[in-house]
C-alpha cells in the first residue's frame, strides 16, 4: 500500500497565509486566507460532453477542500516547492505521460508522484513505502518488481510507473469512480470496499464529509486535484514550463556493469544515468543475464557497442592466492558472490586454486585488503557461538583456515560445539 511522503525538511513546503486554522491533515493544522478564494479557483471542473468517464477529468475541482489546497499551493512558498519538485520530475515526466496516454487514463495521474514522493525516486516513508509511487514491499509481486541485495525495483521509475497505473486502473474498474480509485490507492481497496458496504455510499466526497475515510485519504484527492490544476497550467500561476526529457529505452546487460564506468565510456551524463536506474543499490547492474538498463534513446546504440566491446566496465581488486584461500572466504571478505568471482576469472575451479595465481575480484564496495594473521599470534580465546563455523571465525580474525584448525587440534570437517573455547589470533 502506498505511503505518505513527507517533504524533506530542507525543502520549502506550502506555507500558511493567515493565522486562522482552517482544517487539519494528520493532526497538522493548515491555514487559509480568511477572505474568499480568488476568482480563478471558483470555476467549474472541465467537462467534455460525450467522453469516456475513464479518461474525463477527475471531478472535485469545485470542492471546498480542493479550493483550499489550490489557495495553499498557489502561494509563493507553495509555488516554489512545486517548481523544485517538477525540476526533479523532468527525467520521468515524458515516460509517465506516455504510459497514461497509452492506457487512456486521466491526465491528472501524471502528478500523483508529487503527492506520493515529491518525485524523489528513492523516497521512503516511515511505514517503508518506497519510490516515486510509494510501494510497500509486500505489494509488488503482481507488478513484476523485486527487492534483493542488488536492486529495489520500487525505485525503478519504469516498472513502478507501470505497476502504479495498472493498480489505479484495476481500482477504477472495480469501483467505477476515480476519486474512489485514488482513495483505494492511498488506503487500500479492501478498506474502501468495507467503508462503501458500511455506509451505503459510493461518493468519495460524501464519504469525506461523513469522515468515513481516514483523514489522510480525505485530503489525498483534493491535494492531487489542486496540484494537477496548477501544474497543468503553470504559466497561469506564474511558473515556467519544465522539460520532459530524455526519452528512455531499455538495453539488456549480460554482465555486471558499473554505471559510472559505462557513463565514462559512452559519454552519458553519469547523474542522469544514475537517476534513470535508481533501483541499482550499488550503482552496479546485478549478475544476471539480460538485466534491462535504462538509457536515453539517442545513446542506446553506443551503449550496445560498449557493452559488446572489451572495455572494463567494473573495477576490480587483485588478490594473490595463498595457502588456505577459498572462493567462499574471498567472496565473504570482498562482499561479492562466488559466481561473480568465477565470472571475472573464466576457467577457475574452486576446488583447485593455484597458490601464487592472481584473482580478479569485482570491487562492488570499498573493502580493506584481505590479510590473514600469521600462525604464532594465537593469544586470545574465543567462545563458539551458535552458527559459528571454522570458516566464519577464520574470516572474522583474518587468519588462515588451516592455521586456525591446526592451533585448535581440529580437522577442517570437525564439528564446532556451542560454548567451546578456541585459540584465535590477537587482533
Task: Identify the notable features of this structure and list them briefly.
427 residues; mainly alpha; Lysozyme; Membrane-bound Lytic Murein Transglycosylase D, Chain A; two-stranded antiparallel ribbon; two-stranded antiparallel sheet; disordered N terminus
What does this structure look like?
The chain is mostly helical and 427 residues long. The protein has four domains: 21-237, Orthogonal Bundle (Lysozyme); 248-308, no CATH class; 316-362, LysM domain (Membrane-bound Lytic Murein Transglycosylase D, Chain A); 380-424, LysM domain (Membrane-bound Lytic Murein Transglycosylase D, Chain A). 38% of the residues lie in helices and 9% in strands. It is built from 15 helices and eight strands. The chain has helices at residues 64-73, 76-103, 112-117, 157-175, 178-187, 189-199, 204-209, 215-232, 259-266, 270-276, 300-308, 327-334, 338-344, 390-396, 401-407; strands at residues 21-25, 28-31, 248-253, 291-296, 316-320, 358-362, 380-383, 421-424. The chain has a two-stranded antiparallel ribbon. It has a two-stranded antiparallel sheet with strand order 3-4. A two-stranded antiparallel ribbon has the order 5-6. A hairpin with a 2-residue loop joins strand 1 and strand 2 (28-31). Helix 2 (76-103) crosses helix 4 (157-175), helix 4 (157-175) crosses helix 5 and helix 5 crosses helix 6 (189-199).
